[in-house]
Amino acid sequence: MVRRTRAEMEETRASLLATARRVFSEHGYAVTSMDDLTAQAGLTRGALYHHFGDKRGLLAAVVAQIDAETDQRLQAISDAADDGWDGFVQRCRAYLQMALEPEIQRIVLRDARAVLGGASPESQRHCVQSMQRLIERLIAQGVVAPVDAQALASLIYGSLAEAAFWIADAEDGDARLQQATAALEMLLRGLKPAR
């Protein structure tokens, strides 16, 4: 048996992830066979089993990779904003807009929901915690009315996630995005303290 170096193992894993991400995005999880996927990666089924357990495990890894990139993109939006409230609102809008990106739409919002039941509990917790930190700052600044930040973050995250699924599932996603964005604006206005 040939022993692989850590670098070779990481390269194999990265190749499988990149290939799966491309193929799942182009063709969808259901019609992608493990043989086609491994052939396109120039690897064996054994490599896929070793690194991911099975095709479902590979999908979960691809979703985790996309989720991490999405989180970085959203954090960059918050960080770049001159005003904490504007950054929060822009971040929420961007989350909804991402539902129209073909890769996110097919892999995360359709296939992952059908095959994995949606985002992993760890991913959901991370999203809620990230939003909670933003809300805590906004409450401390007096921009958002005092409320339990974790509860509010859970409600907003849940609303955004369900709206993203709703947008991704539409024949006319652009129309649903406009409707969801209008509803989001109304929802977020309600967070401000009464004056």
General description of the model:
The chain is built from 9 helices and no strands. With 195 residues, the chain is mainly α. Helix 1 (6-27) crosses helix 2 (34-41) and helix 1 crosses helix 4. The model has no long low-confidence stretch (mean pLDDT 92).
Short recap of the structure:
With 195 residues, the protein is mostly helical.
Key descriptive features of the protein:
mainly alpha
SS elements, strand count: 0
Q: Given the helix and strand composition, which structural class is it? A: mainly alpha
Q: Helical proportion?
A: over 70%
Rounded to the nearest angstrom, the distance between the terminal CA atoms is: 73 Å
Q: Main beta sheet: strand number and arrangement?
A: none
- SSE pattern: HHHHHHHHH
What fraction strand?
Answer: under 5%
What is the CA-atom radius of gyration, in angstroms?
A: 19 Å
Contiguous low-pLDDT stretches (5 residues minimum) are none
Topology of helices and strands:
Blueprint: H1 6-27, H2 34-41, H3 45-52, H4 55-80, H5 84-97, H6 102-116, H7 121-140, H8 149-168, H9 173-189
